[in-house]
Amino acid sequence: MRVVYRGLAVAAAVVAAAATLAVVLPAEPDEVAAGPVTAPPAAPSSSGSAPSSPPAPTAPPTAAPTPVAAQHQVTPRPGGSLAPGYTAMEALYADPRVPKLTRSVKRMALRSPGRRFVKDRRSGLAVPRLPRPWKAYGAAPFTTKQVLPRQRGTAPRGIFVTCPLPIMEQKSARDTALLAARWTLNHHPEGSRITWLASQPVKRGWMLVYRVTYGKRTSRAAVVVLDGGMSKPGLAFVTVPDSQRKQWRDIGRVASGVRVLG
């Protein structure tokens, strides 16, 4: 029995030794041993010193924010839409076609209103029905429209229209009327400029009378802005070219005759 046990002990020792060899023996040359992946060493410097660590990455530069004042340096284009950051009144003051309305602009004597009126229920206004040669005409895109006959050789002709205010209402009726007068340049020849002739408050609104110059020709015009009790104020606008100057007297009829529809 002692011989048997001694033989088993020898066999166990042989097996243990084999297991140890299996763990520590290196891999064969044609095998790839698994291991952690490391970055390749940095190339040595020209001085032969030890390689230094690469510099830490830096964040890309960011663009500096544009100052608010610089964002407002764009001048509004005359007759165009507002430049970013501009209010309606700032755009008006920047428009070279419209001079500043000063205290030197006087009031005008208003005539007694006539007895014949055209009712505009959309704007809440009643306006004079002007005598011949004025006549009613297709209103679109306005709500009422009266015109003078066309004259041979001239494109502009007298028009008198009403509609709800087509521009943004301002805190004061005076400022609203100024913006409305600027808007009417869209209905005059290109290059038109304004010269103020009269400015005054009227009941529930404001009235402006002005001359429009385009080249060698002119027109007389007026706007009246009134609160007619609608969601937006009502606008009455009349313009008559110098080729029909006999009807310039009707500018006064419009200025004095526009009233709130009651």
From TrEMBL:
Judging by the UniProt lineage, the source's domain of life is: Bacteria
Chain segments carrying region Disordered: 35-81
Which keywords appear in this protein's UniProt record, sorted alphabetically?
Answer: Signal
Cleaved signal peptide residues:
1-22
Compositionally skewed regions (Pro residues) per UniProt: 52-64
Q: What is this protein called?
A: Uncharacterized protein
Give the organism the record lists. Answer: Nonomuraea salmonea
